[in-house]
Amino acid sequence: MSALAGVRVVELASERIAFAGKLLADMGADVILVEPPGGDPARGYPPFLDDTPGPDRSLWWWHYHTSKRGVVIDLESAEGRARFKALMAETDVLLESEPAGRLARLGLDYDDLRQVRGDLIFVSMTPFGRGSRNDDAPVTDLTILAGAGPAWSCGYDDHALPPVRGGGGQGFHTACHFAALSALTALLYRASSGEGQFIDVSMHGASNVTTEAASYSWLVARQTVQRQTGRHAAAVPTQGTQMLCKDGRWVNTGVPPRSPAEFGYILGWLRELGLEEGFPDAIFLEIGAAMPKPITYDLIGVDAEATAIFSAGREALALIAENVSAYDYFIGFQRRGIAVGVIYSPEEAFEDEHFRARGFQTAVTHEDLGRSFRYPGAPYQLPASPWRISRRAPKLGEHDRDILG
User: Fold this and answer.
1) Measured distance CA(295)–CA(304) in Å, rounded
2) Which residues form the domain of 363?
3) What is residue 325's three-state secondary structure?
4) Are residue 110 and residue 47 in the same domain, yes or no?
5) What are the backbone dihedrals phi and psi of residue 354, each rounded to the nearest 5 degrees, phi first?
6) pTM here?
């Protein structure tokens, strides 16, 4: 049985909150997407199937609305509002990201709907939180990431280049994770208390608290972190981690080797490649491999031997990179227990054998097209909670008769 079987969620269609509904739908909730007459504008978002625009051909729409059912309700009409309230009487969770004041104007806000269903969980996701002085400010995924801080922390060592926005709708996604997790927490609480809740999710706040040390560095120490290529932003610059491989592609080496086992693995690979003799500092790798415990960061730059061993490890990583392809570098170190990653495009990551072996590619049948398509699968793996895409995204008003009668 799915983890959320028996839970009904109503989602008022909006590109901002679509991912929250998808997370719950793919975990088994009965998510009903409510669209206005004519459909949600996101139905026309590119890219399109076979690069041909048209109804039900938006790949964006396909991805964000898997496992949902869809109905059309005109909330601006009295009849539509009555139908919506009837639907809410049988609903556990409402997801909405409507313009400020719209639901109150329509008589469909939390105080109105809890008269229909007293234990309703009402999740409101707005740019800056309900009641903010910026309630009416227009926002996009880009402005959320820029204003909340993540964009400041992303980019390159060369600060003549502008900051980099995280791709793939990360501002909206981050807030949607908070919305979905809050709804799940409220469902657990309701199971023991019988009480519903109003949940106020700020998109700005959600992104701001996921800036790692950036916000706290300023709040606590009044330090401003600086973006760095391929590594965490920091108030004090750290050592580079990206290395160029023999085939002209880059890898990210992540946390530098510090343990005896890691130095041993690096030395062993140098020997396999016939590079040890041309690397004078190999002796320090031998010393590092024989250490009783890992090198701690406080010793680097203070203890001469620890510094030499640490530096030899970094230089050996670069030397190996010069002599193998990026993919061989990635696989070779992964097999030796050292975490590195080849820098992929999204398309390359999707096709990587590791992702395929973990079942990340998921086949979804479009019976209307007589075809099956490969979708991105679960963003997590939970051992006791089944996950699956149960159906393609709904066509406009596809389930009106089933749900609304």
Assistant:
1) 12
2) 8-210+357-404
3) coil
4) yes
5) -70, -40
6) 0.92
